[in-house]
Amino acid sequence: MAAPGNKRSAIVTAAFMVAGSLAWVAGISTSGLEGSRGFFGPGPLIADANLILEIFLVAGLSYGFLLARRGNIDAHQVNQTTWVILNIGLIALIMAGSMQDVNVSNARDLADWRVGVTWLHAAVGTLTALAGLWIVLQMNDVLPPSLHAAGWKNLMRATLAGYWLTALFGFATYYFWYIA
Length: 180
Prior knowledge:
Blueprint: H1 4-30, H2 45-69, H3 73-98, H4 113-139, H5 152-179
């Protein structure tokens, strides 16, 4: 068990990291710079910012897995909660709105790589984000015991795999929209 001061410090640091990241994204949008040239070159600034934050997110969640394997459950709890909250924020501020550009009028539209991969990324990402949120709510004792998932260690492992799969589809989405 971590000392209360250490856990409090970790929570404050995590809150600043999430708030700073989301403020950066919101600042890009509110200043009207989301469509300007990104720092990677081919994509717009908002897509590049999202890509960087998602790389950190998957790396951070993977590090959280290692924390749990080492038995540091308090650090694991703060770490995973932080990254899941950041992910929900990125979905709300960037990804949900960008789906308006990917209209599907019939099933044949999904044969277009840009559209198909984007919707696959969105579907897997939505399920993964919901599973991550459920786990975080359970882990932090927000959910009533009657809603707790049994076998949640397996759910955690599957959710981490889902975050990795979502990230791979996210890279593919970036590729098909801005590079190919």
